[in-house]
Amino acid sequence: MSLKAFHVFFISISILLCLTVGGWGIQSFVTGSNSVGILVGLFFILLGSALVVYELRFLRKFKNVSYL
Amino acid sequence: MEIPYTIKARPDTGLFNAKLGIWLFLASEVMLFGALFSSYILLRIGSVEWPHHVLDVPLATVNTAVLITSSITMVMSWASLMMKDFKKYRLYMGATVLLGFGFLIIKYFEYTHHFHSGELPSHSTFFAIYFTMTGLHGLHVIGGMIVNSYFWGPGSKMWKTEPERFTNRIEVAGLYWHFVDLVWIFLFPVLYLL
């Protein structure tokens, strides 16, 4: 597995984390259990969205590089 | 005698020597951190009470962003070498080292706060496993920074004599750095949020 493949895997896992934590933060704010959660949640949703855009651009730019 | 497969991949494995070596090493690292994550789960299941909201989530959030950014700069440094742009390589690799340093500084402030509050590893089972896991991860970050700093500085001389081999070395260092970042991606929710 090349660095390209591992990077794509890593960014995908990071996106999953960001969106999950983002959802958790907003949910904890709505239920009133954690007021800091909304800021953390919004930050992670922004970060996750940025990573989705980045990953798509990365895959387009490095489509000729091998995954092995 | 010349060592074979330092640049070109071995036909049967499809890997050059260093890449095979780093994946074997990373497999052992998976077992090491896997054992620690298993210990965490067993300790947590076996405990009557488990502390919540005792760690600084905003600081850890910043650290998560720092490490994700460092993985991007790391892969960009490798990509720069493939495009034969050594100046950009130096820039991205330097940024990777600085981001690793930034991560450690934030971790230092976090640790200091715990120490001043009397929350040492002996304080509770939670802090024992917290310091063990984040401490070991921190040591891996330091290890990666030492290697990356070497490749940014004196080790980069190889670019002039053996550019392909040097590019392979950066790829291998990048694989290690990504693994260290990936460990944090699992550590963060497990220790700080759950």
List the helices and strands and how they pair.
The complex is a heterodimer of chains A (68) and B (194).
Chain A lengths: L2 H28 L6 H25 L7
Helix pairs in contact in A: 1-2
Chain B lengths: L16 H30 L10 H26 L3 H31 L8 H28 L5 H4 L1 H31 L1
Helix pairs in contact in B: 1-4, 1-6, 2-3, 2-6, 3-4, 4-6
Could you characterize the architecture of this molecule?
- The complex is a heterodimer of chains A (68) and B (194).
- The mean pLDDT of chain A is 90.
- Chain A has one domain (3-60).
- Chain A contains two helices and no strands.
- By secondary structure, chain A is an all-alpha fold.
- Chain A has helices at 3-30, 37-61.
- Chain B is mainly α and 194 residues long.
- Chain B has one domain: Up-down Bundle (Four Helix Bundle (Hemerythrin (Met), subunit A)).
- Chain B has helices spanning 17-46, 57-82, 86-116, 125-152, 158-161, 163-193.
- Chain B is elongated.
- The model of chain B has no long low-confidence stretch (mean pLDDT 95).
- Chains A and B meet through helix 1 and helix 2 of A and helix 2 and helix 6 of B.
List keywords for this structure.
A: 68 residues; mainly alpha; 0% strand; B: 194 residues; Four Helix Bundle (Hemerythrin (Met), subunit A); 6 helices
Task: Give a quick precis of the structure.
The complex is a heterodimer of chains A (68) and B (194). Chain A is an all-alpha fold and 68 residues long.
Q: What is the residue-mean pLDDT of chain B, rounded to a whole number?
A: 95
SSE run of chain A = HH
Residues in β-strands, percent of chain B = under 5%
Structural class estimated from helices and strands of chain A = mainly alpha
Stretches of chain A where pLDDT falls below 50 for ≥5 residues?
A: none
Q: CATH superfamily name of chain B?
A: Cytochrome c oxidase, subunit III, four-helix bundle
- The secondary-structure class of chain B comes to mainly alpha
Number of helices of chain A: 2
| CATH C-level of chain B | Mainly Alpha
Question: What is the number of E strands of chain A?
Answer: 0
What is the strand content of chain A? Answer: under 5%
